[in-house]
Design goal:
about 190 residues; alpha/beta; Rossmann fold; seven-stranded mixed sheet; two-stranded antiparallel sheet; globular
Length: about 190
C-alpha cells in the first residue's frame, strides 16, 4: 500500500511505511473520510497521535492546517519513520516526536491540552479500550471541545463505561471502525 498525504499544503507527498509488519497504516479512503467528518475543525487545532506508526494521520492534520501534532510510539522503527516522514514534508517545526509508552505518558501530569486525540493501536490486544480508559481518568489532556477518535477493527468494539467521555458517533469502512468520543456534559 502506498502512503501519501491526501490534501492540504503537502498534498500528494509520499510517506514511508514502517519497515516490517508491526503497523497497519490507515487507508486513504478511511483517512479521507475522517478528515471530511472533521472538516474545518482541523484548522489551528492541536493533536496527539498516540500510536503514531507512520505518522500519516498527524501529518495529514498538519497539511490541513493543524498547528501542532504530538507523535508518540514505543517502536523505535516507527519513531525513525515518523521523523523521516515529518522532515520529508517539512513539518518538523509543528511536530513533537516522542518515543515512549503511551500509558506512562497518559498517566503523567498533562503539559498540554489537545483538541484531538487519535488512538490507533496494534489490533486485538484491547489496547484501544485501555488507552481510552487511561485518558478518561486523566481528562486534563483534553480541551473543552476535544474529540477523541479510535481506529479499530469492528470485531474489537465494545461499549465502555466511562466517567468523563461519551461516544457520539461511529463510522465503519470495511475492516476499519472509527469511534468518536467527546467530553460528557457535566
Amino acid at each position: 500500500m502506498s502512503l501519501r498525504v491526501i490534501s492540504g499544503t503537502a498534498k500528494g507527498r509520499k510517506l514511508k511505511p514502517v519497515p516490517g509488519d508491526s503497523t497497519r497504516p490507515i487507508t486513504d479512503r478511511v483517512k479521507e473520510s475522517l478528515f471530511n467528518i472533521l472538516a474545518g475543525d482541523v484548522v489551528n487545532s492541536s493533536w496527539w497521535d498516540v500510536f503514531s506508526g507512520t505518522g500519516s494521520v498527524g501529518i495529514e492534520a498538519i497539511s490541513r492546517g493543524a498547528k501542532l501534532v504530538r507523535f508518540v510510539d514505543l517502536d523505535r522503527k516507527a519513531i525513525e519513520t515518523i521523523r523521516s516522514n515529518v522532515m520529508h514534508v517539512g513539518f518538523s517545526s509543528v511536530s513533537e516526536i516522542r518515543r515512549g509508552d503511551a500509558f506512562v505518558m497518559l498517566s503523567a501530569v498533562p503539559d498540554k491540552r489537545f483538541n484531538f486525540v487519535y488512538i490507533a493501536p496494534p489490533q486485538y490486544h484491547d489496547l484501544w479500550s485501555k488507552t481510552l480508559i487511561a485518558l478518561d481518568a486523566n481528562i486534563d489532556w483534553l480541551d473543552d471541545d476535544a474529540c477523541v477518535i479510535i481506529q479499530i477493527h469492528p470485531k474489537e468494539y465494545q461499549e465502555l463505561t466511562l466517567i468523563n467521555l461519551q461516544e457520539y458517533d461511529q463510522r465503519k469502512y470495511g475492516s476499519t471502525l472509527l469511534v468518536f468520543y467527546e467530553l460528557a456534559a457535566s
